[in-house]
Amino acid sequence: MEMNTEKKHTISLLVANQPGVLIRIALVFARRAYNIDSLVVSPSHDEEYSSMTIVASGDKKVLHQILDQLNKLVDIIHASDRTDEDVIHRELALIKITCQSEQRAEVLQLAAALNCKIINVRESTIILEATGTSLELDNVNEVLSPYGMQEMVRTGKVLMTRGQEQTA
Question: Among the four 33, 80, 92, 154, which has the fewest Cβ within 10 Å?
């Protein structure tokens, strides 16, 4: 017997580049009380279409119903659950750390060890850029938090399938 426990799902979509598409997609999720954790929309290689990556929390049975509804919408070319697939996925984060000069060397050493890029250094703040998987950025957050993290802004997940298969 399969339990319907809530988990994060990663959905890729190829959609028509038309006004109103995003709201129609969001309404499908809202009607099923499915929370969207992050949403990234970008132009595809063909200007008539956009690529979307949605990370949403909820149970798998409801997600299947949502995907069925999304694939019936006129402006959706294709929607797929990529959660358990072997895909390339990355996020980007900008992190602002408030630190005094005596902490700066330690923070910069940690940033280098975490593969962060230094974007800006001021008298009392450092801004870093981190890219990687969601888990890697969670780790960056955990390691740098004790050093006076003022804010962190994350893009949300983008993904691409390996090999010849189209992502959406």
Answer: 33
